[in-house]
Amino acid sequence: MEPLLKVENLRIELTTRTGVAPVIDNLSFELGAGESISFVGESGCGKSMTALGIMGLLPEKVGRIASGSINFNGEELTTATAKRLRDIRGNDISMIFQEPMTSLNPVYTVGEQIAEVIRAHQGLSRKAAWDQAIELLDAVRIPNAKGRVSDYPFQMSGGQRQRVMIAIALACEPKILIADEPTTALDVTVQAQIFDLLNDMKRQTGASIIMITHDMGAVAEMAERMIVMYAGRKAEEGPVEQTIEHPRHPYTRGLISCVPHIMSNISEERHALTEVPGIVPSLSDFGQNRCLFASRCNMVTQKCLEERPTEKPFANGQKAACWYAEEV
Amino acid sequence: MSNETLVSVENLGVRFAVKRGGGWGQASYLYAVDDVSFEIKRGETLAIVGESGSGKTTTALAVARLVEAYTGKVNLDGTDFLALDPEASRLARAKMQFIFQDPYSSLNPRLRAEQIVREPLDSLGTMDETEKKKIVDRLFAEVGLRPEQQRLFPHQFSGGQRQRIGIARALATQPDLIICDEAVSALDVAVQAQILNLLRKLQADLNLTYLFISHDLGVVQHMCDSIAVMYMGRVVEHASRMDLFNNPLHPYTSALLSAVPSVDKARREATKRILIPGDPPDPVNLPAGCRFANRCPVATDICRKEDPALRDVKGGHKVACHLVGNDAVSPL
After folding, report:
1. What is the mean predicted confidence (pLDDT) over B246-274?
2. Under a CB-based contact definition with an 8 Å cutoff, are residues B46 and B220 in contact?
3. Which helix (H) or strand (E) holds B251?
4. In the predicted model, what is the mean pLDDT of residues A97-102?
C-alpha cells in the first residue's frame, strides 16, 4: 500500500549570516495512514524544520526546500502553489504548536477562532460553524462547552488552551496531525490528559500523528515508530520499543541513557548519569561529508571523519546511519 | 553524612494582595505558600516538586528572602534568617546561594565570566584582589571551565557552560545551602546530564546542601534524598526518596508519579495511570476542605469539610490526607 506521506531526499536550506546551511540534509521517511511517528532530538537538530517544510511554512526568504520530494496522498507538495498548500493546511494536514499561550489570538473568543477554521475550509454558515465549535470543545473534553465557547483565551488554563488548539487542528478532520512539542509547556498531569485525548482522537478519526518531542518517555507513550534526528540528518529510525531497547546509533543510545528516567522500584544506590560529552555542532558544520556526531562519539574512527555514514537497515525495521551500527 | 539539621523552615507563609471585584482598598490575599515546614540535613538534597502555581518557587524565594514571608521562620544553622536586620541578612546570604533556571537571562551580558563569578566576593567585601583571583581560578576548574575562558562574555558560551558559570558564582562565597530553581530545565538532555553529574560531584566534594526545585520527577528521583510535594501552596507529602517513590501515600502524589511518561516498559505496564480531571481550585477563594478534594478520585465527605493537616504516619513519612491511616497505606 502507498504510504500517506512519503518524504524523499529532502533538503531544506536556511540562509544565515554565515552562509547557507542544510538544516535538513537528505531526509527520507514514510508515514502510513493511521500511524503515529515521533521525531526526537536535541534543540536545533531539525525536528521542527521538518514539520514546517511539510506544512509549507518555512520562514520566508530565509528557508527553502532545495531538493527532494514531499508526496502527500499522491500529490507533490514541494511544487504545489501557495493556494493549494493553504487548502491542504487545515483540511488535510494540520498542526498544533508548543505554546498554547501565544498561538491563540487574544482578542477573539475561542469559539470564533474554531468557527473561523470551519467556515474557511468547509464553507458552513456562521450558525452551523458555531454549533460545530461547541461540539468540538465538548469532544476535547472542555467541561460546559456551551458556556466556555464564548471565553477568551486568557480565561482558560494552559491545558484548556492546548485543548482548544487541538479542537482547531481537528476541526476539518485532517489526515495528518503534526504536534510540535504539544505538552512541553504543560504540567505532567495535564500532559497525561492531553496524550490521552490525542490517542482517543486518533482512534476515532483514524488520523496519522507526527509528534515532535525531546522527551523519550513521551515517545514511548505515544508513537509506534521513531526517528532520531541529529544535526539535520536522520541518525536512526525504527519501531519504538525495539529502538529504545536496543538502539543502533551511538547518539540514540546516549539520548536514552543520559536521562534520569523515573523507575517504579528504586534502590538506595545511584549511578552517575552517562554523559554525551560536548554539544551539538553549529549550523556552519552542517552538511559536511562526515559523521556529524563523531566529535561526541566514543566509537569514533578515522572513517567517521572522512565519509558520511550510509543508512544500515536491520531485519526488525531499524535503520541507523552509523558505520558501526552492528556493534552498538 | 552527618545527621545535623542545616535548614529548618517553620510554618512559612507568603501571600500576595490581589483585588477582586469588591471596591477600593479591600485587599484579598492569594496564599502562595501556606504553612510550609520542612528540614534539610547538612550534605543532603531536599527536592520540592509540584506543578506550576503550586508555590515551589515562591517557597525557595522566601527561604532566601527574595520575597518577603509574612509569617514563619527559616532557621539556617541555628539563627532565624528572616528575623535578621537588612545588613546582617546581606552577610548571612553568603551562606545561601541561588542557581537559576535560565542560563541566558541570569548572567549579566556586560560582565566577563570572571567578573560574574567574582561579584559575590566583591559585595562581601572581606578579601583582597589576589585572594579573590585565587578563588575564581579554583572555581573555574571545579565547574569544568578552562582558565582562558575567564575573559569571555556570556554570549560566547553555550547554555551548559553558562550554567557552569552560574554554579561557580553560587559556590564563590562557600555557601552551606544552594537553592537550585529548575537549574537544568532549560538545558538539552545531554547537557542536563553533564550538569546533574557536576552538581552531585560538587555536593560530595564540598559537603553541599541543596534545595532542589524541579517539575521533572525523573531528575528529582536521581538527585534528592528527600522530597516535599506541594499542591496549592501546601506541602501535601514529605518523605525520604525511598518512601515517596516506592510508597506514595497522598492521592495527588500517586497521580503525579503515574503521569510521568516512561521509557521503562515494565513501569508503563505496571503503572495504572491515575487521571485527575479538571483544574486546581481558584487560589483566592479556596474551598473549605482539602484543596485537592475536587479532583481526588477517592475524596469523601470529610475531605470536603475539613482541611487535613500534615502529620507523620510512619517513621518520618508525612502526609496531609484524611484517608491515610497510621498504617501508611495508600487510599487508592
Report:
1. 88
2. no
3. helix B251-259
4. 78
Cβ pair A264:B267 closer than 8 A? yes
Q: Where are the domains of chain B?
A: 5-231, 252-332
- Contact partners, residue A104, CB within 8 Å, separation at least 6: A110, A113, A153, A161, A164, A165
Q: A218 to chain B: which residues are within 8 Å by CB?
A: 261
**pLDDT tens by residue, B62-114:** 999 999 999 999 999 888 999 999 888 888 888 999 998 888 889 999 999 99
Task: Read off the pLDDT band of B22 (50, 70, 90).
Answer: low
End-to-end Cα separation, chain A, in angstroms: 33
Q: How far apart are CA A24 and CA A13, in angstroms?
A: 7
How far, in Å, CA of B26 to CA of B137, rounded? 54
Tell me how far CA of residue B113 lies from CA of B151, B163, B174, in angstroms: 6, 11, 18
Integer CA distances (angstroms), B232 to B32, B51, B135, in order: 7, 9, 42
Instruction: Name the fold adopted by A5-98+175-327.
Output: Rossmann fold (3.40.50)
| pLDDT classification of B1: cutoffs 50, 70, 90 | very low
Q: Which residue of B has its CA nearest to A282?
A: B158
Name the grid cell of A99. 505554546
User: What architecture (CATH level 2) is domain B5-231?
Assistant: 3-Layer(aba) Sandwich (3.40)
Low-confidence winner among A40-44, A239-243, B134-138, B314-318 (lowest mean pLDDT): A40-44
Rg of chain A taking only CA atoms, in angstroms? 21
How confident is the model at residue A184, as a pLDDT? 82
Spell out the residues 6+ positions from residue A295 whose beta carbon is closer than 8 angstroms to its own: A278, A281
- How would residue B123 be classed by pLDDT, with cut points 50, 70 and 90? confident
Interface test with B, best of A191, A245, A261 (most B CBs within 10 A): A261
List CB contacts (< 8 A) between A187 and chain B.
51-52, 215
Across A219-223, B84-88, B121-125, B266-270, which has the greatest mean pLDDT? Answer: A219-223
Measured distance CA(A94)–CA(B71) in Å, rounded:
51
Residue among A172, A163, A162 nearest A117 (CA): A172
* Cβ neighbour number for residue A120 with a 10 Å cutoff: 16
pLDDT, tens digit, for every residue of B160-179? 899 999 999 999 999 999 99
The CA distance from A276 to B255, in Å, is: 32
Judge: A274–B52 Cβ closer than 8 Å, yes or no. no
Query: DSSP states of A33-74 as a string?
Result: TT-EEEEE-STTSSHHHHHHHHHT-PPTTTEEEEEEEEEETT
pLDDT band at B222 (very low <50, low <70, confident <90, very high): very high
Identify which of B68, B121, B133 has the alpha carbon closest to the alpha carbon of residue B91: B121
For residue B317, give the C-alpha cell.
Answer: 513519612
Contact A236, A256 (CB under 8 A): no
Closest chain A residue to the Cα of B225, Cα to Cα: A268
Q: Does B265 touch chain A (CB under 8 A)?
A: yes
